[in-house]
Design brief:
Largest sheet: 3 strands, parallel
Strand order of the largest sheet: 2-1-3
Strand content: 5-15%
Radius of gyration: 13 Å
Helix content: 25-40%
Number of helices: 5
Shape: globular
Distance between the termini: 19 Å
């Protein structure tokens, strides 16, 4: 996945918040930003909306069908774009290739 996205790393998990919580300490810090689909497991959504702001991490939520919305929500301090392939609880299918094409250009390293 990292090679496909031209990234430095990737994480895939099979279920729940564990796959999401694991990378947080290395990716995030106060002042960081997340762009997330509105179609997420309730516990994850609550953590993004209620818990992480207490640590200075803000989240912008975007409808998973609004591909341009993902692009518009990205800020200079965005460290993570989060979505579920098949959203919970509505079953929306996230069009990953289309969402990827709508993202902003990569920042130079």
């Amino acid at each position: 996945m990292a090679a496909l996205e031209e990234g430095s790393g990737a994480l895939a998990g099979r279920a729940g918040r564990r796959r999401f919580i694991s990378p947080l300490p290395t990716l995030m810090g106060a002042g960081s930003h997340i762009v997330a689909s509105t179609s997420l497991y309730g516990g994850t959504r609550n953590m993004l909306a209620l818990t992480l702001p207490r640590f200075g991490i803000e989240t912008s939520f975007v409808d998973p069908r609004d591909h341009e919305g993902f692009k518009k929500a990205i800020q200079p301090n965005t460290r993570l774009v989060l979505g579920e392939t098949i959203g919970n609880p509505g079953g929306e299918v996230l069009d990953i290739p289309r969402s990827r094409r709508s993202r902003t250009p990569r920042r130079s390293r």
